[in-house]
Structure formats: structure tokens, C-alpha cells
Amino acid sequence: MFYLLFIPLVLETTAIAGNKSFTCNNNKQIAYSGQLSYPMFSHSALRVNNSFRRKTHTLDWLILRKDVTSIYGTQVADKALLDHFVIAFTIAIDRPKVEKKTVTSRNIKQLDHEELSKDLKAIAIEHSPNDTSTSLVEKYNATLEKLLKKHAPLRARTITDRTSAPWINADVKLQKQQRRQAERVWRKEKTTVKRQIYQYHHKRVKKTINNAKWDYFRSKILSCSTSKALFRLTSTLGGRSKTTPLPDQISDDKLPDSFCAYFHDKVKKLTTELDSKGGKPS
What start and end residues bound the annotated signal peptide (predicted)? Predict the structure, then answer.
């Protein structure tokens, strides 16, 4: 029997830990490599100097994705967790890439008000008796838009797309603003007093965010009226996907037949076992 435990490391990287009945006696060094039928995982390679369990001397597996190329710093320690030992290891993986997007904006704060006033006074819009209120509004809007493009042109910027956390409230935003102001003053003056003021605001923001997180998750848990709602909430907080991934090694047109054949054989096997034992399952 091969028991598997999925351990999510980052968004796109997964490790599998499990055990297989391999004997590990006399404290000899063991190395095992085995090919799996899952396309997303490569062979496992794990070297230890002792067994991972006290009684059965079973060798545990550690299986990684194909893009994870190295495992190092493997250690086995007895932390008194049932009959298993703790396997500690380090994997060379990259952090998930942050999404970026391009936005356009105008620097209204840097407007030269005197020059803008001169251009506004110099506006000359031709009028005709046939002009309606709508056409006049369109003429004024077009003229003002040209002036705005002249004094505050659109500029494109690439920024990091960070989704706002649900527990960020008005109090957190205000304290973050005060922290940024204190940081700008400290970087400008470079004095000890200003640095202490910035550190005070920095610690206050961290404390406020922690309290906001606590209140948010507490209210979410208390609002769960049924065990099903609580299970759904824990799945969401644990980062589980709402969609169930289907195996990609089987084509879409053959996948329904594959599921049908699997469950048909399963039911047939159970029926045969019950008939052979007089209706009493083992």
C-alpha cells in the first residue's frame, strides 16, 4: 500500500510525501528511485541514514514536480509524533511571479495654474445661431480636453497588481497613510527622532492589521451556522481550488468511458466478493 500526503509549497509547486514497504536495517544508507504514472511528477530520490518509523522500519518517499530539480539538507528527527519521524528538507523553488498591469494617469498636482489660467482666458469658441446646447457642450469639452492634454498629458505606468485584502478597513488605510508620511519625513531629515516616529507608526500598523485579521476571521467562523459552511470556509482559507482537476493524460473524449469502466469494475468486484462470502463483506 502506498499512502500519499499532498504538501502545497507554493502556488504552482507540490510535493508528495508517503511511505512504501522498504526494509531499512543496520542503519545502512538507502537510495531509491521510482517512476510514477503521474505526468506532473518526476522520479523520487531520497537518501537517509536510518528508518523513518520506530517499529516497521518503513522507508518514506518524497516526490516532487519535474521542475523542482534539487533536494538538499534532508534530516530525520524523532519528535515523538506517533510512530513516524519528522523529515525536514529544503527545496530550491522560485517564488510565484506577481502580476503586473499598465495604467494611465495624469499628474494633476504638478499643473501650472498661472499658465492654465492664461490659456483658459484665451479660449475663443465660434458660435453660430444654429448651435444647440448639446453642440456647445461638445465644443467646450473638446477645447478643455486639448488644454488638459497640453498641461497634464496622460502617462502610462506599469504597476504590480495587488488585490486588496478583505480585512483592510478605513482605520488600517489611515494608519498606513500616516506611516508613509512619517517615512518620507524621516528619509528627508535623517534624524533619530524622526526615525523613532516612523518606527512607532510601523509597529502600530502591524498591530492594527493583526487585530483586523483576527476580527475578520473570527466573524467569518462565527457566521457559519452549519458544519458544511464551516468546512467550505476552511477549504477557502486553506487555498483549496473550487474546481476539481481532471487527469490530463486521458483525452476528453475517452475520459467519460474511463470513469464508467472504473466504477463498473469496482461495483462488479464488490458484488463478487459479497456473493462469495454469503453477503458479508470482509
Answer: 1-17
